[in-house]
């Protein structure tokens, strides 16, 4: 289909890593152009990048959860906190959420109220879950906007002590949601803090970091990982290697490894796509030579033998277009 157009123009917020870029360029002959962010085009104005607050690799997943709670507890009185977990994998989303409820929301020594307070769109919790579906499998899309809006708003205790909500999510909450932190006090403290418990591929990672430091505001992120999870669980020497690197270098190495696995996946997909293109070309030429109406019986009475041959050929995964053409000419 792509070959029928002289030019196709597309826009995306994040193309991905080197593997995706190379694939798009090779497969579609795409010419990429990176449009600078608006603030980068303004005189005397600079776009602040999100600050890397560190990367920690813990021995056990339980220790990682402890560190997540510790980081959230030390930050929620100063800035909004968004925690991006691995979701249902290892029940991590629920585990982190319940620990935050226990250690912060239900802790009399903390500022958060134990009970939610009513609002026009339902109860508002100090520790809130942002997910596509709830535990009952019901879509939460209608509630998402309210949750995101509440996530960056300053709250006060009865004694007028300030704090911000903690939002726990999975990959669903790591992209496409506008956490617009306008609070001057929070931005003075570094802006919204994003805590990630895994490193995804480059495309997703760009999205995750993009939840903070939006527009002309500051932002910060912290990465807390567990040796009991991938990729460390199958590569025993990886954690010590990354601990010897800077935080940025450790993240880049994990992204590079993700990129390598994506390269293998795309290589397999490239073969499938090429076969599809060859088959499509063959079908177009075949039906141009043997036209019939869209509602005509198949196989047709006039071309029964070749119709069946075409069907059988479409079932064969030919390695090259030339082999397909040779088979068609027989």
Automatic annotation (TrEMBL):
GO biological process: intracellular protein transport; protein targeting
Superkingdom assignment: Eukaryota
Signal peptide bounds: none
GO function term, MF aspect, one: ATP binding
Protein name as catalogued: SecA family profile domain-containing protein
Species assigned in the record: Chrysotila carterae
């Amino acid at each position: 289909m792509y070959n029928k157009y002289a030019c196709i123009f597309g826009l995306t917020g994040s193309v991905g890593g080197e593997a995706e870029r190379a694939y798009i360029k090779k497969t579609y002959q795409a010419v990429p152009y990176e449009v600078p962010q608006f603030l980068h085009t303004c005189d005397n104005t600079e776009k602040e990048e999100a600050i890397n607050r560190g990367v920690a690799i813990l021995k056990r997943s339980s220790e990682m959860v402890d560190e997540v709670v510790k980081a959230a507890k030390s930050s929620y009185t100063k800035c909004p906190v968004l925690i991006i977990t691995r979701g249902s994998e290892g029940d991590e989303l629920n585990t982190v959420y319940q620990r935050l409820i226990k250690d912060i929301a239900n802790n009399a020594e903390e500022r958060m109220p134990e009970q939610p307070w009513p609002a026009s769109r339902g109860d508002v919790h100090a520790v809130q879950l942002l997910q596509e579906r709830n535990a009952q499998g019901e879509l939460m899309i209608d509630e998402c906007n309210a949750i995101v809006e509440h996530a960056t708003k300053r709250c006060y205790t009865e004694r007028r002590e300030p704090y911000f909500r903690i939002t726990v999510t999975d990959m669903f909450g790591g992209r496409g949601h506008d956490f617009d932190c306008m609070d001057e006090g929070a931005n003075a403290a570094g802006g919204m803090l994003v805590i990630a418990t895994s490193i995804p591929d480059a495309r997703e990672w760009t999205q995750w970091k993009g939840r903070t430091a939006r527009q002309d505001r500051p932002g910060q992120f912290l990465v807390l990982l567990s040796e009991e999870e991938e990729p460390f669980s199958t590569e025993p020497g990886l954690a010590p290697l990354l601990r010897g690197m800077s935080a940025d270098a450790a993240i880049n190495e994990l992204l590079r490894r993700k990129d390598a696995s994506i390269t293998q996946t795309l290589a397999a997909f490239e073969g499938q796509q090429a076969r599809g293109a060859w088959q499509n070309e063959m079908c177009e030429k075949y039906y141009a030579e043997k036209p019939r109406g869209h509602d005509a019986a198949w196989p047709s009475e006039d071309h029964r033998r070749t119709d069946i041959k075409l069907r059988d050929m479409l079932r064969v995964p030919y390695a090259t277009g030339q082999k397909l053409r040779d088979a068609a000419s027989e």
